[in-house]
Each structure stands twice: as structure tokens, then as C-alpha cells.
């Protein structure tokens, strides 16, 4: 069994991260081809890629669902997840990053760091995932490696360590110079067949390569003590020292190795694979996973002989069965074994274990620590569930699930299909935790909430394509919030109830104030300044729980309340009638009364919009953004086009893609990313919350 611990050193679990259309899926396809996993290059525009296998992905030409594949390179097993690049599917990226040991961030050599590139980078920061960068599309007109690296440095703030120099520019791009080993890797044929050929550095690039090698050595010496010592002694770094230090800096996050190439033309893929093996960590190199059991923290190392522990990060539910994708952190699992889900408190039996190849499966007898596999036969496990050895319980931290910001009302067109629709919606929510299904208390309508207009459109289309009922969909609506603009102090509330038997008594004095000075801040803070034991500590906790209960509905329109601080300043108790229940009720009703006395502001979600348009269409696009209550925050010229950045209310962006196409004759594109909340117009704040009307599309 101990041989498996050695095998773990040859495993790499990584994701491909990027902005939409930066080339993630093409990079994945070329990796599969270079490793011999596939024998034909798949193309996004032809709908022949391995990882974009869903019909909607092929129709739309974008990645929607994270897809796992596995391949082998240089004696290493690479488990790879191709993640979506569109902001509406950021939750798929979040859940994937939770189980990955490393990542390759792909950047467009023309556009550099784009909005969603920055978002996924921050997501990886939260989970401490080491990354290397691949600047793609160097064969495009306007491609510039140095400009892309500058944008990485300025917008993402790592120390970029460029280890390659491109040979040729734009259409003449033929390969790269490896600055670590000072050799060239080129392809002679324009079609990109065969493998890269190692050759001497071209004479025309030799001085530039030496200069960049020196810059790389100096940058590494500044960041790594061992490199600094050798650099001071020898005034240079050996290839072995440079590679070892780059590996250390990548794994600590103090530096980011930057490679370059063109995935479409198959340039730079083999060096990228070599960098994955050389610099990104194995399961043995990452810290032991942390979990809790009965309130005590425990750690599980990546050891096949340790008790079994795994985290489910994705569920594929269909009419023919469920596959639960898991990352095995410790132990070994075999077919027929029983696992325990501490979240639900139930045991489940593993019927089959498969290694995923997108929509194809390879049967396995068992999986060990470090594996990413799918388990069949689990009925209750959901994305975020922990699976562990029943004899060694452990609860792992769940991935963060984003809060939905857009809702639509849905109903079956035929009353007899209501049951089928409920089943289809439950399956959607089971597969994607960022989709929320609820029933509107006022109208009785079924409301589907998600991360954006495209997210909901894909979900409804999935119902239709999976044989579900015909569905009518209402206008998209955004999720508003309410906050305190001007608070109140010293609000006294007494909860007294006497109806025979033990009564209820609670007296609280509350101060309510904005959390910060700016409308749009989110969060809730509770504190107590009560002295002299006038309100015992256990009742203080009950008051806080009651205040949190009151945040679910605000006085303006019944929206959740955020961005406020509540201070319990005084109170009193009754020797017999005071209880946790009484003080919780006092906290809830007292805060509701206080909010009615406060000056409240309605908040609406806003998005940062990046619009790329031809120079001659800038005026019309700016006018349209202004009409949508957009606030321009930046503009620049890039590759013959204008790039405009604006903050726009999310509600104003519904249908914007069609309007932008018409204003730019189809030449304009835009991307969005969430930018928090901002105060809504006063007229909107005073209007009652409208119901979700349903209109057939």
C-alpha cells in the first residue's frame, strides 16, 4: 500500500481558468491531443471538443459546465478540470477550485487581463491555489506578451516570472525560447502537426534571450533566499537552481511563472505540460485537509492508508441515475464500500467508481487519496457534501455558494405538467447549488433564481432539452436589498406576554446605525455594551439571533436588510418570566420597529461592464450606457477598438446584448462581473415590490 504514497508525487490536480473566449477549452483540447488521450484536435467553432460536450455548450460556443478529464504526461497523471469563463457560471469555478491543487490561468495576448480573468484569479486566491500563467493567442494581430505581462502585474499584483520568449510575432509566431534551459522549441509546419522540436536559440534573438534570462534571474533572486545566495556567489543561476526556485515560488504564491503560445496553432503546449509537472504541486505538497468533528479540528494527510475522507463538488443527475464527482483527500474507497455523510447523518453505498473523461467514463475498482473521480449509487450527497469512513467521522468545509441576484417566475404551460416541472426544477437545483427554487408567498408562483440572465436561460433550456414540460417564463427581476441610511438610538422595546402559566418578559434598548458611511455596504454587525449584568450573556446571544431573524424582511418592500450595525445598550429581566425565547422575540420585534423609525434606502445589484466596440460606435454606446443609468469608470484604446468600463445597474442590462449588436452592426462585445450593491433611485425605492408576472416567451 505504501507504494501509493510514492505514486501521489506524480499526480497533478489542476484547473484551467480564464475569461470567456481566452482559449481555455482549446488549451484543454491541445493538452489531450499532445498527451495522446485524443487522436484528433477538437475545435470550439466546429462543436467537436471533448469537454464542451453539452448541446448548449456547442450551440453557444462557450463553456457552461465544469468538465473533468484525465491524461498522462512524462510519467505523471494529470486530472484536469476545464472551467467556465462566463461570470454567470462563476459558482462552477468556485466549486472546482475548492478541490484543486493548482491551476493554469489563460490570458489573451491582445486583451491581457480581462474582467473575469481577475474574478477567477481572486477566487483562486481565496483557496490558496498555486497558479502558472499561459499567455495565449500570440499568433493574433496586436498580440503583445510584454503588455499582457504588465496587465498581470498591475491588475493581479503577483510577481510575474516570464520563462519564455516568443519566436516571431503575430502570423509569423513559430515557437518559444525556453529561458530556463536556453533552448528553442519550434514547429516548422504552419498546420502545427507533429511535436515541438528542440533547437538552438535563433541568433537574431540570442541577445534578447540573454537579457531576459538575466531579468528572470534577478527577479527570482529577490524572492528566494537560496537563489539570492547562489546569485551573489556566482552572479548567475544554474538551470537546476532556477527551476527549483520557480517551483518553490509557485507553490508559496510569491511568484507566478508566465509561459506563452498559441493553443489554436498548437504552439507552446508541450512546454506548458512540462511546467505543470515541474512547478505545480502534487497532493503531497499541499497542506493536509482540515475538517471538524464534535467541534474539534482534525487534519487528514493525503495518505491512502488514512481513514477515508472526500468532498463532493459536482452532481450530474439524469433520468438514468446520479454521478457524484468527488475529490478524495485521504484513504481508499472501493466498489461496494459504505460511506457516511455527516451533513445528513446517513450512510450510503458506492455502487461504481469511474474516472471522468467529460461525458465518457472509465471504470475503476477503487480510488485513493489524491484522485478526482465520480461515484455512482449515492442518493443523498449534494455538491459540498463530505463523504467519510463511518468509523472516523470528519466534516470538511463546504465551498462558498454565491447568492442569486436574478429571478424569473416559471410555470408549466399545461396544468397537468406541474408535477413534472417541480421534478425538473429539483434536479436543476441538485446539480447547481447556485440555482434556488422557491414559491412566492404573495403570488404562489414558482420563482427560479440564479447568477444572471444567461444562467437562467440555460437552466430553462436544459429543462426543455432533457424532456421536461413546456415552460412559461416571466421577466427577469433582480434581488433588491434594504439598508440603513440614517439610524436611530435608544429605541426601547418591551416584550410582555401573560396568558396563564409562565409568561414572557424581555426589555431591550437598541441603537441602529449604518455599517459604513456609504450606501451599498453589505453585512451585519451586532455588539453589546450592557454593563452590570442587566442582560445576562445568554440573553444577549438570544437578542442577536432575534435581530438576525428580523433581517429577512425590511420595511420598504420586504427585501432582506444588510449593511447595518445593531448595539444592545441596555435592558432588564424578570426573575421568572425572562427566557431565551422572550429575548429572541424582543430582538426580532424591536429591530423591526427600529428599522421603521430609520431612514432606509433600497439597494439594487450593480455590475461592472466592459464593452469593446469599434471607434466609430463609441458615441452611441456611451449614450446608451448613460440611458441605462451607467457610470463610466474608464476607457482605453486597444488594438484599433475602444474599451469602455462602466458600472451599470443589473436590471438595466437585460436585453443589452441585442441592443449593443444593433448599435455596432454586430461588432461590439461586452462582459460583466458583479460589483455589489448601490442605492436605487428614490422613485423605485418608494414603489411597492411588484409581483412576478408570467409571460410566455
Automatic annotation (TrEMBL):
Primary site of residence: cytoplasm
Entry-linked Pfam families: EFG_C, EFG_III, EFG_IV, GTP_EFTU, GTP_EFTU_D2
Domain Tr-type G, residue spans: 9-284
Domain of life: Bacteria
Region (Disordered): 665-697
SMART domains: EFG_C (SM00838), EFG_IV (SM00889)
InterPro entries attached to this UniProt entry: EFG_II (IPR041095), EFG_III (IPR009022), EFG_III/V (IPR035647), EFG_IV (IPR047872), EFG_V (IPR035649), EFG_V-like (IPR000640), EFTu-like_2 (IPR004161), G_TR_CS (IPR031157)
Residues reported to bind GTP: 18-25, 82-86, 136-139
Gene Ontology annotations for the cellular component aspect, listed alphabetically: cytoplasm
Residue stretches of biased makeup (Low complexity): 674-697
Location(s) in or outside the cell: Cytoplasm
Keywords for this protein: Cytoplasm, Elongation factor, GTP-binding, Nucleotide-binding, Protein biosynthesis
GO BP term (any one): ribosome disassembly
Family: Belongs to the TRAFAC class translation factor GTPase superfamily. Classic translation factor GTPase family. EF-G/EF-2 subfamily.
The protein's name in its UniProt record: Elongation factor G
Organism: Streptomyces collinus (strain DSM 40733 / Tue 365)
Gene: fusA
Amino acid at each position: 500500500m505504501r507504494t501509493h504514497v510514492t505514486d501521489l508525487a506524480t499526480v497533478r490536480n489542476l484547473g484551467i481558468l480564464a475569461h470567456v473566449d481566452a482559449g481555455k477549452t482549446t488549451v484543454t483540447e491541445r493538452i489531450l491531443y499532445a498527451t495522446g488521450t485524443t487522436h484528433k484536435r477538437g475545435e470550439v467553432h466546429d462543436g467537436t471538443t471533448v469537454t464542451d460536450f453539452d448541446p448548449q455548450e456547442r450551440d453557444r460556443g462557450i463553456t457552461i459546465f465544469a468538465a473533468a478529464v484525465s491524461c498522462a504526461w512524462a510519467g505523471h497523471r494529470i486530472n484536469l478540470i476545464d472551467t467556465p469563463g462566463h461570470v454567470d457560471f462563476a459558482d462552477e469555478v468556485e466549486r472546482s477550485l475548492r478541490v484543486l491543487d493548482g491551476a493554469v490561468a489563460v490570458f489573451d495576448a491582445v486583451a491581457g487581463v480581462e474582467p473575469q480573468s481577475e474574478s477567477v484569479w481572486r477566487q483562486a486566491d481565496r483557496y490558496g491555489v498555486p497558479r502558472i500563467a499561459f499567455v495565449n493567442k500570440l499568433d493574433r494581430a496586436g498580440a503583445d506578451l510584454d503588455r499582457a505581462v504588465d496587465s498581470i502585474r498591475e491588475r493581479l499584483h503577483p510577481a510575474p516570472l516570464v520563462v519564455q520568449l516568443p519566436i516571431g510575432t503575430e502570423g509569423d509566431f513559430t515557437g518559444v525560447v525556453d529561458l530556463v534551459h536556453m533552448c528553442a522549441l519550434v514547429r516548422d509546419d504552419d498546420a502545427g502537426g507533429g511535436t515541438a522540436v528542440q533547437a538552438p536559440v535563433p541568433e537574431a534573438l540570442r541577445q534578447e534571450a540573454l537579457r531576459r534570462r538575466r531579468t528572470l534571474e534577478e527577479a527570482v533572486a529577490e524572492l528566494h533566499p537560496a537563489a539570492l545566495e547562489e546569485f551573489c556567489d556566482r552572479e548567475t543561476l544554474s538551470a537546476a537552481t532556477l527551476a527549483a526556485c520557480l517551483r518553490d515560488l509557485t507553490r508559496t504564491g510569491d511568484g507566478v511563472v508566465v509561459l506563452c503560445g498559441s493553443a489554436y496553432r498548437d504552439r507552446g503546449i508541450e512546454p506548458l505540460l512540462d511546467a505543470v509537472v515541474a512547478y505545480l504541486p502534487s497532493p503531497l505538497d499541499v497542506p493536509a485537509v482540515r475538517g471538524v468533528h464534535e467541534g474539534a479540528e482534525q487534519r487528514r494527510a493525503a495518505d491512502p492508508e488514512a481513514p477515508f475522507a472526500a468532498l463532493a463538488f459536482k452532481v450530474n443527475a439524469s433520468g438514468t441515475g446520479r454521478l457524484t464527482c468527488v475529490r478524495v483527500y485521504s484513504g481508499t474507497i472501493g466498489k461496494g464500500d459504505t460511506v457516511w455523510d455527516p451533513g445528513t447523518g446517513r450512510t450510503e453505498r458506492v455502487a461504481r467508481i469511474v474516472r471522468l473523461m467529460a461525458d465518457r467514463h472509465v471504470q475503476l475498482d477503487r480510488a485513493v487519496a489524491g484522485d478526482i473521480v465520480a461515484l455512482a449509487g449515492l442518493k443523498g450527497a449534494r455538491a459540498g457534501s463530505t463523504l467519510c469512513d463511518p468509523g472516523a467521522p470528519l466534516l470538511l468545509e463546504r465551498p462558498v455558494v454565491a447568492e442569486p441576484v436574478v429571478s424569473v417566475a416559471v410555470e408549466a404551460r399545461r396544468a397537468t405538467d406541474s408535477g413534472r416541472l417541480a421534478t425538473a426544477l429539483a434536479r436543476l437545483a441538485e446539480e447547481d447549488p447556485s440555482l434556488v427554487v422557491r414559491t412566492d408567498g404573495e403570488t404562489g408562483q414558482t420563482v427560479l433564481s440564479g447568477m444572471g440572465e444567461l444562467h437562467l436561460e440555460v437552466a430553462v433550456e436544459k429543462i426543455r432539452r432533457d424532456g421536461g414540460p413546456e415552460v412559461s417564463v416571466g421577466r427577469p427581476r433582480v434581488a433588491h436589498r434594504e439598508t440603513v441610511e440614517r439610524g436611530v438610538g435608544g429605541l426601547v422595546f418591551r416584550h410582555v406576554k401573560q396568558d396563564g402559566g409562565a409568561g414572557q418578559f424581555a426589555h431591550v434598548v437598541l441603537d441602529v446605525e449604518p455599517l459604513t458611511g456609504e450606501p451599498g455596504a453589505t453585512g451585519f454587525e451586532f455588539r453589546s455594551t450592557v454593563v452590570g449584568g442587566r442582560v445576562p450573556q445568554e440573553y444577549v446571544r438570544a437578542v442577536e439571533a432575534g435581530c438576525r431573524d428580523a433581517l429577512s424582511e425590511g420595511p420598504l418592500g420586504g427585501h432582506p436588510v444588510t449593511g447595518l450595525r445593531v448595539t444592545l445598550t441596555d435592558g432588564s429581566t424578570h426573575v421568572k418570566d425572562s427566557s431565551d425565547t422572550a429575548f429572541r422575540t424582543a430582538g426580532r420585534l424591536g429591530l423591526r420597529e427600529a428599522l421603521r423609525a430609520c431612514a432606509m434606502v433600497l439597494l439594487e445589484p450593480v455590475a461592472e461592464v466592459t464593452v469593446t466596440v469599434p471607434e466609430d460606435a463609441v458615441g452611441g454606446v456611451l449614450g446608451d450606457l448613460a440611458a441605462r443609468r451607467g457610470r463610466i469608470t474608464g476607457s482605453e484604446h486597444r488594438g484599433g477598438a475602444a474599451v469602455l468600463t462602466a458600472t451599470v445597474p443589473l436590471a438595466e442590462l437585460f436585453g443589452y446584448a441585442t441592443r449593443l449588436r444593433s448599435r455596432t452592426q454586430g461588432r461590439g462585445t461586452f462582459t460583466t462581473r458583479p460589483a455589489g450593491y448601490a442605492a436605487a433611485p428614490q422613485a423605485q425605492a418608494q414603489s411597492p415590490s411588484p409581483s412576478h408576472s408570467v409571460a410566455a416567451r
